[in-house]
Amino acid sequence: MRFDTKIAIIVREDLATWQKLNVTAFLAGAIAASTEDIIGEPYKDADDNTYLPMIRQPILIYAATPEALTRTHAQALTRKIPTALYIKDMFKTAHDTANRATVQAHPADSLPLVGLALYGPRNLVDKTLKGLSLHS
């Protein structure tokens, strides 16, 4: 199935593996929490056990340098693409309120980005991701 929208998560390529996974999980959660009709139906196995629903469309994960993350962020803001972010300072905090405070302490053009999530029309997201490679 081809979707008219695209979900992309961009993670800084030089992070430790646990950091990449953590950033990806938080950013996917942001997309799920803020986007209507993105969550599918609950799952059931043959024994009638019920499992939580998941995001209903693929999420593509990209790797980026710090410079590419900054460029992608600026383009997403200019194009008004719904965006979630994760900054380096958030690795040192222990709760959501502190996370928001760390973001608010930085101007948009100097955020120490380690991850972004974009959700929007496929063609607009694709233009914004131009030059990035899928994470390997």
From TrEMBL:
Pfam short name (any one): DUF2000
Protein name: DUF2000 domain-containing protein
Lineage: Bacteria, Bacillati, Actinomycetota, Actinomycetes, Streptosporangiales
